[in-house]
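Any chance you could type out a protein's amino acid sequence plus the matching backbone structure tokens because I've never seen that pairing?

——
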Amino acid sequence: MLRIFFCIVFVLSLLNRVEAKINISLGPYYSSYLLYMDDEDSKGEWSLGGEVGITGFLPHIGLKLRGSKIRYDAPVESVSYDFEYIPITLCTSFDLLPFMDIHWFTLSMETGFGLYLWKGFSDGEVVVISDGGKMNEKDIGFVGGVTVRLKVNRFIGLEFVTRYNYIASSNIYKYGYFDKDEKIWENGIGVNFKIR
């Protein structure tokens, strides 16, 4: 925990020297997901998500750290468990209109990597499987998307986000799922706050 704190302080001190801009976004997300290859119809879920964005340290390029939570039901051997995905993604953001000086409108494309935390719940507790382990996995994947930001004033804006998550290293095959090819499509709207 102490290392994380020192890393954050170090990064913030660097950003302070290069006059970087920091934005925070919060709002609802609608996730449409295909978590199993044999699923023909995608399922949908509303959730809350958040994002921290840093721009200005390089021209027209920024970094975005995002997180949200997807909770869904799936039957496992006639027992209904609740499953939860928490996508945490780190993206590089590219300004798609670098030569247009429109102060109230921003269009950017993002691409990057994601860490996907996956848990299985029964009666609110993480499921313990027969060998004593827990249904608690970490997967990695890729993410790409587009963000449209409309600035209401200097410090507040509305943000519209769409992004596609491809989970490349699914570890849930050990629970009887043979798919290693999961997909999550997220669409969201949020309020963006510029804090510096």
